[in-house]
Amino acid sequence: MRSTRRRILAPAVLAVAALALAAGCSGSDNEKSGPVSITVAGMPTAQQPKQLDAFKRKITDFTAANPDIKVVGDEAVFDIRTFQAQLAGGKLPTVFYVPFTEMQGLIARKQIADITSALPADSAVSRINPAILKVTKDSSDHIYGVPIQAYSMGLLYNRDLFKKAGLDPDKPPTTWDEVRSAAKAIQTATGVQGFASMTKDNTGGWVLTTMSYANGSTIQTVDGKKATVDNDATRSALQFYRSLRWDDNTFGSNFLLGYNDAMKAFAGGKVGMFVQGADAYSMVVSNMGMKPDDFGLAPLPQATNGLGTLGGGTVAIINPRASANEVKAAIKWLEFDNFRKYSSEQEAVADAKAKAADKQPVGAPALPLFDQATTDKYLAWVKDYVNVPRQNYASFFATAQSVALVPEPPVKAQETYGTLDTVIQAVLTRKDADINALLADAQRKVQAIIDAG
Amino acid sequence: MSAETERSILSRLDRRRPGVRVALGVVRVLVFTVLVVLCVGPLFWLFKAATSTSTETLSAPFSLWPSGVHWGTFAEVWTKVDFARYFVNTLWLMAGSLFFGLLVATTGGYGLAVLKPRYAKAVYAAILATLFIPGVISLVSLYLTVMDVPFLHTNLIGTLWAVWLPASANAVNVLLMQRFFAAIPGDLFEAARIDGAGPFRIFVSLVLPMSRPILGVVSLLTLVGAYKEFLWPLLVLPNPEDQPISVALPRLETSGDFAQFMAALFISVIIPVALFLVFQRQFLRAAGNSGALKG
Amino acid sequence: MLMAFGLFSWWPILRSLPLSVQRTNFLTTEWVGLDNFSRVLQDPLLITASLNTLWFAVLALVIGFPVPILFAVVIAELRRTRGLASVLVYLPVIFPPVVAVLLWKAFFDPSPTGVLNTALGWFGLGPLAWLNDGDLAMPSIVLQATWASFGTATIIYLATLMGVQTELYDAAETDGAGAFRRFWHVTLPQMRGVLLVMLLLQLIGTFQVFTEPYIMTNGGPENHTVTILMLIYRYAFVSGDYGRATALSLLLAAALSALSWIYLRATKRWSTS
User: Fold this and answer.
1) How far is C130 from chain A (nearest CA, A)?
2) Helices C242-272 and B139-147: angle between axes, nearest 10 degrees
3) What fold characterizes domain C32-272?
4) ipTM value of the model?
5) How is domain A154-309+410-451 classified at the architecture level of CATH?
6) φ, ψ of residue B89 in degrees (nearest 5)
7) How far is C93 from chain A (nearest CA, A)?
8) B108-121 burial string, b = 16+ CB within 10 Å, else e?
9) Which range marks the domain in which residue B225 is found?
């Protein structure tokens, strides 16, 4: 009986053994020297054929210059709801991109690789604005990632709707009262909702934090030990929301909006204004098809005691399981992908030319990673290829240097944002929401999140 | 059972009475109206939304094709949104789940019902027990197990194995098989054994051919289950390129055009619906069967 | 077979036990005793999520339990058109859950030109905010969930009804019992076994609801649709706190087992008395 049993099980055992082999093969061989293969995130999907072509061409160029490195594109993108699973599963590509807010937690939990020693001495990373580079460092100045992009929050508006509502698209609102009356004007003239806010997947808290900065308060102390959510600046931001939602009815009807939902609504001309990262141009115009001339960007309106605007960005991290060779190759790729255009005119022009040919934006508004001189030099090199109506953002560029940049909350920013999402959803879905009670409650919860360590 | 001999709450006598007949007619019309609106309505609306422009659907959801039927949307979904790839992923996922599901269910059922080694009772009890332990208990630990499979020490995350293998350990299927195999008359095994057939040959050439109906039921349950699964593939297939339709759709919702998204939904639903209409008897029997087991 | 169950069914269940008293990030693992449990119980969201889940279960039973019985009994009377009716009833079940949820999410468009709001407008009602209204969000989700699942239960009941002993109907009829009394005194008692099991299964199912709120609201507005399973998901896969997630899983599983046990004991007494 027993022997027959074994025979019956044989197919199952074989199958399992086969899968073990197959799975074993798919794992990369980390310790090989010589040719090395890396996977890099951020490959555009087939929904964006132009970007995909550009991405593939970049890989070809890179491989031509570095024949012993094989680069494989990967569509993985950061999603707060699945990121930890990806990380824990060890299935992150060699190069992956995360928001600034994730870095300190990742470093503290030792979940990403220390790349300090792998950075070449002449690396462009060393010239990155120290204030920005700081987010990728631990307390002893070790570097765990490469910032590749930075943004500041601004007020996005639809220039076409402004015109239709009799507003001057070149004079966007500069105070929150002006935002409110512009929202009313747009709603009355066009029937399109004047203002919107993201509310879901932590984006609501991200925007509310930004508005709190503009109104004069942070939501955590600088050392990240105390929550300061219950403050007058946040209160007036929420009161602003309430007025637009319940008094003016210029806030639309859907209050469960994530990042993409809001971007899509804005690109489709269904929203007059909303607070968003000022680097949204490429996504809204190139990916979602908004007309370049309809895209408006203004500096974030500041109250008299406003602190400035929230600044954040994207960091490239390297899979902690990558071998030393893979880390080196990954850094080479990152420099090639992001920084070479800032170091030589020839590279800058070639890059801009290719982008313009693909109808990709050149000169889109963003927060300079390097000092102003480097940025200006780059813009001078590529000025013939700029295809973005930069004159439309004159007011934004004019204040770029004067409006202070305030970093995101230092501790557990995403969880803090998540708590604030609830507060915003309450104010927007309940007419009788008690702002004071909501803030007091959020204050307790954020403090508990901080204390949980 | 023919309609002549059976009866239900109402008897044949009842049915001859004019009052009852009228009432029954009214009920019939009512029930079908409700069912059509409730069950066919959404499908029809989905088709309409898929073949209208986004603006039309969003501004007047019940207007019927004011600017004609836009068939092109389906082609766009297939090529531009790359739906074809998610579709192929789904097929692979289903095929593998079917293979491993049947493999485990048949060998398991055979072992428990026919070979009956000494420890069969314990195994049977352990399998039965998993039915009563809520699946939620092992969501997290199963994830960790798949990340680092004991003894083999491989990471299955990001591969279809991570979906196939856990799905194959399905207690309901094993028990269905076991029950069916146990009902095969023992004489047949005896006869085969006298003819010199070993357990494996008995399994392949006697048991399997006899169990076509139950194999059909188990296959159907497995395929439908694999097509419907959402949370697990979402967890273990983090890379968009590997994901099946069910995981890709929520992402398409926010990234693409509304009409295209509706068309993607329609394609995802029309395939199972078409199969259902063709194999409706098998589907409904499988549904009743799973109920019988639960009961 | 043994390997499949051993590795992917039994092992994870056993593994849950030590995991619930550990804190791990896969590089280092420390034993933290009951710390995970106490952190679960201290989370203010736990009460919200439990109440939400209970509320979902109650709504799902109130709406979702009687509807299939009604449909099954009526369809059973239809005779010749019964086959067609069964096909129609089962159609929503054929919708993959994600498709059904996303479709209904589109139906729930809160603007006056949303699908359901337009339909309500025909009767001079609405527009409602559906998922955007804290009080209406959970009932909306239940509406969708009921739509998606009532076909299964109907078909199972229908199969049971086909097996009802018809002689009893004859006897009841001879006693002069009308259609409703025949249903009440003959049909229902014979369906009791199936009804009781289905009720329990539905209950256990509703306690593990995830996909619907995850896709439709991700817990909003104002945490009105956060469920326990969603909390487990967030602990584990958003915060990377696997120990805490497992602790909550065990608590939920224990609660469900207790529920089943009490339920089975209670109904056993009831059905033998």
Assistant:
1) 10
2) 130
3) MetI-like fold (1.10.3720)
4) 0.87
5) 3-Layer(aba) Sandwich (3.40)
6) -55, -45
7) 27
8) bbbbbbbbebeebe
9) 81-255
